[in-house]
Design goal:
The structure holds three protein chains of three kinds. By secondary structure, chain A is an all-beta fold. Helix content of chain A is 0%, strand content 53%. Chain A contains no helices and eight strands. Chain B is mainly β. Chain B has a single domain, classed as SoxY domain (Immunoglobulin-like, Sandwich), CATH 2.60.40. Chain B has two helices and nine strands, in the order H-H-E-E-E-E-E-E-E-E-E. Classes of the chains: A mainly beta, B mainly beta, C mainly alpha. Strand 5 of chain A pairs antiparallel with strand 6 of chain B.
Chain lengths: 106, 158, 262
């Protein structure tokens, strides 16, 4: 499973806009690079990223090869109630990578 | 010098080898043209009219490498229950594939803002389009100069 | 040069001693400047970001390897060394260094593999493999903020002299030495790109061009090929010697691993 890093603040006040950051280790092969034999390396990318919290979606992305390797996203969540913030990445080969972090809302 | 398609690794060596062998090395388009960008946009948003404004598109004016260009998009929206941004789609008008990514904001998003890193195959315009909950589409466009070094314009194995 | 000195030099056994004394008196040809200072603001910001710096993905993987007890001997790196933040602090500043076990100067990657072979009973991580880059980045980052200070005297002296000769030797179809660009033209431009001093204090680096981490030896190979010279294999003594000289050139520069470069 690819290495991921996520950042969710430990605590937040209800109604706060909380910055969330996520990154996954992935080459995002764009299909244009050549190997040492001069053959094009096929496209190999993460196709979907999503973040959900408190029973709803926060932010999701349909990725294309135009994003950099080790795709990184930051965005803002509206703190409502204490609970897990769930992250999910889907590789084009179907592999699903998940991560989760608890957010305490006061 | 800005014409070299660095991130796509279309090398001088490769092209010369191709010509030498009498082979056209054009399995994939090296760059998008205006028609393919227009096509990518209409595939995404149909023929809904677009207006300029509401989007702040933050990109470096000059990128030293096209492989990791930091991008921040902020759409002016209260993100209330009734007035929201549904999605933002980013295009690069001279990348081999103009569509960069589509970002959707769910009900738990506090603001219509995100940051990421994108690839630019050379100097070109980056276009961000936002679809709002009322169905209107807004756009912003920024030009990024991508510089190329003497060494990394080569196709090197290492 | 006086007659007495020539006589001493004729004695092969003392040549090494002479080289050591000579080397100790040397100073780098220029004040070292980190590659960081040759980057644009965006690249610097990515390196400084304690979350978004992609190199940290490798550092985290390195921590996993450090704690991994699923090896032949059942001993993880941590089993012997303990907490890396204290045990490995300063280690990367001293490599490449002479290894009595190997009988020659080795770099950090080779020291890690030596440990792996002898203490863990495991085969070497291949050069430039993800695990070797990860554990090297992890060990190196423990010295972040500490100045590079490699030893170039004693048993390392010969290696240092070979590395120095490599640095000033013109090579390849372009007939350029390392020094031609990275010493004589550091700060100038090659088309759109500024030329750095070629310092190694940030290695392993996350290089945007590669879209991944890379070692000092990959960078040497890349540079060699850029001047159309046949590169040496990663981990070759030629490159280890060059790394020793290069680290000495950057004596005093703070370790920045994982650095981000264009």
């Amino acid at each position: 499973m690819p290495n991921t890093r996520i950042r969710v603040p430990k605590t937040a006040k209800a109604g706060d806009a909380v910055e969330i950051r996520a990154i996954i280790q992935h080459p995002m092969e764009n299909g244009f690079r050549l190997d040492s034999q001069g053959t094009a390396i096929p496209v190999e990318i993460i196709t979907d990223f999503s973040c959900s919290y408190d029973g709803g979606q926060v932010f999701s992305v349909k990725l294309e090869p135009g994003l950099s390797a080790n795709p990184y996203f930051s965005f803002f969540l509206k703190a409502t109630t204490s609970g897990p913030v769930d992250f999910r990445w889907v590789d084009q080969d179907g592999t699903i990578t998940t991560a989760t972090e608890q957010l305490e809302v006061t | 010098m800005m014409e070299y398609d660095n991130s796509a690794n279309w090398s001088r060596r490769g092209v010369l080898a191709g010509i030498g062998a009498g082979v056209m090395l054009l399995a994939m388009p090296v760059r998008a043209d205006d028609a393919s960008v227009a096509q990518a946009i209409s595939d995404t948003f149909g023929d809904t009219p677009r207006q300029d404004g509401k989007i702040a598109l933050k990109l470096p004016p000059l990128a030293e490498t096209g492989n990791t260009v930091p991008l921040t998009v902020t759409v002016d929206s209260p993100m209330s229950d009734t007035e929201r941004v549904k999605r933002v789609v980013v295009f690069a008008n001279r990348n081999p594939r103009p569509l960069i990514a589509a970002m959707m904001f769910g009900p738990k998003a506090a603001t219509a803002e995100f940051s990421t890193n994108m690839r630019l195959s050379g100097t070109q315009d980056v276009i961000a389009m936002a679809e709002l909950s009322d169905g209107t589409i807004w756009q912003a466009q920024v030009r990024v100069l991508v510089t190329v070094g003497a060494c990394d314009s080569l196709q090197l194995r290492y | 040069m006086n007659r007495a000195l020539v006589a001493i030099m004729a004695c092969a056994g003392i040549v090494a001693t002479f080289a050591a004394v000579f080397a100790a008196d040397q100073v780098p040809a220029q004040k070292p400047i980190s590659g960081y200072d040759f980057m644009t603001t965006e690249v610097q910001q990515l390196q400084d970001d304690d979350f978004a710096n992609p190199g940290l993905l490798w550092v985290e993987e390195g921590q996993t390897i450090w704690d991994d007890t699923k090896v032949a001997s059942g001993k993880s790196c941590a089993s012997c060394h303990g907490d890396a933040t204290t045990a490995m602090r300063g280690v990367a500043t001293r490599y490449p260094a002479y290894s009595a076990e190997a009988g020659h100067v080795i770099n950090l990657e080779q020291q890690i593999n030596q440990c792996r072979r002898e203490r863990q009973g495991e085969p070497d991580f291949p050069y430039e493999s993800e695990p070797l880059l990860s554990i090297t980045a992890f060990v190196s980052t423990q010295s972040k903020g500490l100045p590079q200070s490699v030893a170039i005297v004693g048993p390392a002296a010969e290696s240092f002299e070979r590395g120095k000769a490599f640095f000033y030797q013109r090579r390849g179809q372009l007939n350029l030495s390392c020094a031609n660009c990275h010493e004589q033209h550091a700060g100038d431009h090659l088309r759109g790109e500024s030329i750095s001093q070629g310092q190694l204090n940030g290695f392993p680096i996350y290089r945007a061009l590669w879209q991944t981490m890379g070692s000092t030896n990959r960078m040497f190979a890349w540079c060699n090929e850029a001047v159309r010279a046949e590169p040496y294999p990663a981990g070759s003594q030629e490159y280890v010697d060059l790394e020793l000289f290069e680290r000495w050139r950057g004596q005093g520069l703070n370790i920045e691993t994982p650095a981000v470069r264009r």
